[in-house]
Design brief:
Elements: H1 2-19, E1 30-33, E2 36-45, E3 50-56, E4 59-60, E5 72-73, E6 81-85, E7 93-99, E8 102-111, H2 125-150
Parallel strand pairs: 4-5
Antiparallel strand pairs: 1-2, 2-8, 3-6, 6-7, 7-8
Helix pairs in contact: 1-2
Keywords: Membrane, Transmembrane, Transmembrane helix
């Protein structure tokens, strides 16, 4: 019985390590603005083409293991400013102030698929399911071992 439980926990820990997954698709550097994802480009925008300030990075992380909302970036630090580009709809592109006098164009990619602040989606059923199955298996093993012991 003890060997079965030890093997179960070794198996369970191994499965846990293999099941871990990333919640955000960070195949590229991006910023989030009003729920929309913008991919960072190499295009520089002249300061005279910059419109009004529309926001700034409020949350930064280079860790892919969470989902993010608000004005987030995986490239620019907190406090980096967003600007509109004169004559360009913010649904097409915005500008990010990299440093004094240098603005980078970020192109609209689409709605950001994640919901909630970082870590809120950690407790969805897909992440809890392996643990739930493990607990059910453990209860089953314990039940069968007690049933076998009592039938002797």
């Amino acid at each position: 019985m003890r060997k079965i439980i030890i093997l179960f926990f070794v198996f369970f820990i191994g499965c846990t390590l293999l099941v871990s997954k990333s919640f955000a698709d960070w195949a590229y550097a991006f910023v989030l603005y009003e729920g929309n994802a913008y991919v960072i480009s190499e295009t520089h925008i002249e300061p005279n083409k910059i419109g009004k300030k529309i926001g700034e990075v409020t949350d930064y992380s280079d860790w892919e293991g969470g989902t993010y909302s608000g004005n987030f970036s995986n490239e620019f630090p907190k406090g980096t400013e967003y600007y509109e580009i004169k004559g360009v709809n913010t649904k097409d592109a915005i500008a990010v102030k990299k440093n004094e006098g240098l603005f980078i164009k970020v192109n609209y990619k689409g709605k950001y698929g994640a919901t909630g602040k970082k870590g809120n989606s950690i407790y969805n059923w897909q992440n809890v399911l392996p643990y739930l199955i493990g607990v059910i298996l453990l209860i089953g093993i314990i039940y069968l071992s007690f049933k076998k012991r009592n039938s002797r």
